[in-house]
Every structure is written in C-alpha cells, then in structure tokens.
Amino acid sequence: KGNIMAKRGRPKGSKNKPKTVELEHDSVDPFDKLSDSEVLGDIHTRFEVMQRIAQSCIDGDVRSAVISGAAGIGKTYTLDQLLKRKSDANEKFRFRIVKGAITPVNLFKILQDYRHPGNVVVLDDADNIFFDDAGVSLLKAALDSTPERWISWLAESNALLTTEGDYDREFKYEGTMVFITNTDFQGIVDGGKSKLAPHFGALISRSMYLDLAVHHRRAIAIWVHYLCSTTNLLKTHYGLDDGEQKTCLDWMMANQDEMRSLSIRDAMKLGQLMKSEPRTWEETAGVLLLRQKYV
C-alpha cells in the first residue's frame, strides 16, 4: 500500500516511540526541554501512526477514529491522499468528506447513506456539532466501538422526507467514521472546566483517539518547516530555488512567536510573496503575517 511519509524519510534523531517528559513542579514547560530533533521525531512517529490508523479505517478494519491536531499541518491532506488511492484502485469504494458546519439531521442522513461495510464518512473541521446535544449523541453512536451500532432519530423532522423516499428513523450503522479536528480533546478533558469535557471524554473512550501533539507554536513551526523542506513545496508551487525556499522557511522559524498563525498555508504565503516581491517580500511579510505593535 505504500507510505505517504516514507518518501520524506524519518528525520534524523527520531525514535520509534513518542518522546515523553515527566511533569515537574516548576515554572519550566516540559516541552521546552525537548530538542528540535526530539520534537520532530515525536511528530513524525505520530503521523506514521495516523497513516496506519487511517488506512485501517479505509480498509474497514477500524470502524472509527478521532484525529486531533493544529490547523494546517497536513491531517486532511494525508487522509485525502489515502482515500484517493483507495478510490482509484476500487471503483466501488464509497466515501463522503464533509468539511465545515453540519446539522445533526444532515449528519443522520449522511450516516444512513453511507451505512454499509466499507463506506467511509469523514467529518473535517465540523466542531459546531458539539454544541447540539442531538449531534453529540449521533457522534457517540457512530464512533462507538461496540459490536453493533444502531443510530436513531425519533424526533419529528420533515428533513427526513424526500421525493426519492423517506429515511429510516433507525438503522444499523456498519460503515466507518473518521473525525478530524483542530480541538485538543485531551487537553480539554484534563482541564475539566469546559462543559464539553464530558462529551470529549466519551468520544475518546469510544473511538481510536490520536492526538498528533502539534498544538505548541514551536512544534507547528518545526513540523511545517520539515514538511515544506522535504516535499519542496515552495519550489514546486512557486518556482523558488533551494536557497529561496530555505530563506522563506527560516524566516518563518525566526518569527514563529510573532506570526498571526502558523501553518503550511502561511509558508505558502511566504513563497507567494518572495515570488512576487523578490526584493521587498520580508517587509510585506512583516506587515501581513506578523502581529502588529502599534505606537
């Protein structure tokens, strides 16, 4: 089946197991004690695990997974590539990707449409569903790991009535669901203060939960720098040479604490600016991408 990450190679200094740091009762963040190579090795290992879990979901061996990590670090791209590969190899393979907001009743309909073994439903950045009790209940049912999953909608709704035929109010769900989110489920559960903590805890217990551990700004910067360098993203998209690409990515690393956001998208913005403004791109990038200090 191949490994999307394999082409990039394992970063030097990485380990087979994610690096862990014992919490200490001092003011130093344990994360700060990790070297860049340790951070990169940890993230790389977690992305390899993500690929294996995602492939198992696509193959129907794992029925549900929740993948958590910062925005713009390659979660969706990785899963999209695996789904496309499966679809190209098997024309009968059915999947549905839902990006953005979705209502509970529409989630119910999609789950019923893709309820058969081998079908895959991906919810990407659909965190609005957590603010509706009916939506949370549907997620718990679909992401459950019990031998049989029955999903019901017993409330009145004209949305379940269609010209092609009415939707069943209850059905056996035998498909696979993958939920991709930017929200740190475990962090919220551990904090215990959010009203969503019990819901997130329930989803973690029901499903394969993978935290890519890319929430810290330094971790995001290290990973984005690595991905863009090893895939030559800026060279491919904007025709930059090796030196220009490195200059853009080094600028991002140097300014990581001041950038408005950190993601692959931001690295691509830098590539666009260098291409369009070879002499003045740094000044423009400072105004557009960095938090401004007004006097």
Short structural summary:
By secondary structure, the chain is of the alpha/beta class.
Structural features, described:
- The chain is 45% helix and 11% strand.
- The strands form two sheets. It has a five-stranded parallel sheet, with helices on both faces. A two-stranded antiparallel sheet has the order 4-5.
- The protein has 295 residues and is an alpha/beta fold.
- It has helices spanning 36-59, 75-89, 104-113, 133-142, 185-191, 197-206, 217-231, 233-238, 242-254, 264-276, 281-289, and strands at residues 64-68, 95-99, 120-124, 150-152, 170-172, 176-181, 208-211.
- The termini are far apart.
- The protein has eleven helices and seven strands.
- Strand 2 (95-99), helix 3 (104-113) and strand 3 form a beta-alpha-beta unit.
- The mean pLDDT is 87.
- The longest helix has 24 residues, at 36-59.
